[in-house]
Specification:
Blueprint lengths: L7 H5 L4 E5 L1 H11 L6 E5 L6 H10 L5 H10 L4 H8 L12 H13 L2 H11 L5 E4 L6 E6 L4 E3 L4 H8 L3 E7 L7 H8 L3 E4 L4 H9 L4 H7 L3 E5 L14 H11 L7 E5 L5 H9 L9 H6 L3 E5 L13 H15 L1 E5 L3 E5 L1
Parallel strand pairs: 1-2, 1-7, 2-3, 7-8, 8-9, 9-10
Antiparallel strand pairs: 4-5, 4-6, 11-12
Length: 346
Amino acid sequence: MMQPIPNSQQWERGPKIVAIGGGTGLSTMLRGLKRYTKNLTAIVTVADDGGGSGVLRRDMGMPPPGDIRHCMESLANVEPIMQKLLTYRFQDGALSGQSFGNLILAALNGVTGSFEEAVEQMSQVLAITGRVIPVTSANVQLEAVFENGTQVIGESKISDFKKKQDCRIHHVTLLPEQPPALPAALEAIEDADLILLGPGSLYTSVIPNLLVQGVPQAIMEANAIKLYVCNIMTQEGETEGYTAADHLQALLNHGAPNMIDICLANSAPVPESLLDRYQQEDAAPLNIDQERIAQMGIELVEAPVAQDKGDYARHDPERLASAILELYRKKAMRIFRGKERYIIEE
């Protein structure tokens, strides 16, 4: 059942939700969640090194802005023309393929001298709902180690390299290892009512956040409900053949024990028109292995959260947000402590 959209007072006092990840999956989820609560924080990976973000990273020595920009676009409250400007990509010349939104962040990074401050300033310009926080300010690269012992450095290289190796990823790590988390990210996790991991690319969008010093421990120790939002499909070059339990196990292996309470999986069928195309890419609907998830001590909830239409099998922002809020309301009772602080009790 769809959750009713809250009135302004309910929205102001909505649950403190922290969403951790990156890529299209995170920004899609944020677009739905911002209608339910003002108290929304996105903690975003900075391991990307491809596309326009990679160019700015190499040329200007700044963290990659792409995933952060996507989140701010989803949370922005601006006129339609500004929304179009943010997503506009140049077609020709030296700026070909570059996003205007990335260039704004790059300019602010130069003006403020700090990427964290640049994100904060752009958030104000766009009047975003909630906050967007890079998980770390360190200049990190993602390294993948495969089951056959080979390894590759660079987030953008992992997919093609995996296809050539024809074996699973054993683990990923950040270089340098265990970079410090931004204090604001850890504070948001500590203060959260609900912590969300995913949806998004398992090894290149979600797990890199767990490789930052203090983040897994903060999630584990937080007095919050911890929920993993499963992808709808497996991903070519990353999770071919994975089940939902495989995703969960990879998260726990890279993170911390008892880091996930609930797994939310899609129950709506993927349209037949999309299945053939995904099959050509060696991708398929995610198998929800219920018994194995139960053996892991994680509660499984299945709900129809996928889009009915579209060129891709993706989450529907409204359905996903509604399912998440329904879960939260069933599982937690908020007890008022002081002016802002809530604690969670079953």
